[in-house]
Amino acid sequence: MTKHALSKIEAARPQIRMIDSEADTLTELTLQKQRDSIRLYELLLDEIDRATICSRADMPSHVVTMGSEVTFLDEKTGAERTVRIVYPGDADIAAGRMSILTPVGAGLIGLGVGQSINWPDRGGAEHRLTIIAVRQQ
User: Fold this and answer.
1) ∠ at Cα 15 (93, 42), nearest 5°?
2) pLDDT at residue number 32
3) What is the pTM of this model?
4) CB pairs under 8 A, 24+ apart, for 97-105?
């Protein structure tokens, strides 16, 4: 991807928020797993770097955090899905638990209801993901 293309993607990304302790844990997880899929982990680290970090108490309930159940629309495919964003050890896509270390999981974290992001899938094709609803545990 060219620098111009990256700049265009970065300029189109909405403001996101992350809980302080989750940002720290995600950074550690990402650094540990980085060699597995460098592009995905670079994207997630970039998201953590650009996030407004706050405490859990200050996090609005409409924002996707770890453990949130999120309903989103993939505007490219028209598919609407509801998943819970979890750490890798708790992931079970058949049960609706999506790892934060998947392309979609990494793209959704920190977004609020109504926000959209252009985000690549595993093959590199870009999808526009829009948050429809968020439910906290």
Assistant:
1) 55
2) 65
3) 0.73
4) 100/26, 100/29, 100/44, 100/66, 101/29, 101/30, 101/33, 101/40, 101/41, 101/44, 102/40, 103/40, 103/43, 104/72, 104/129
87: exposed, middle or buried (C-beta count within 10 Å: 0-12, 13-18, 19+)? middle
User: The tokens 């680290």 sit on which residue?
Assistant: 45
Helix (H, G, I), strand (E, B) or coil at 88: helix
Contact yes or no for 14/47 (Cβ under 8 A): no
Look-up of token digits 């490219």: 76
Q: Are 107 and 101 in contact (CB under 8 A)?
A: no
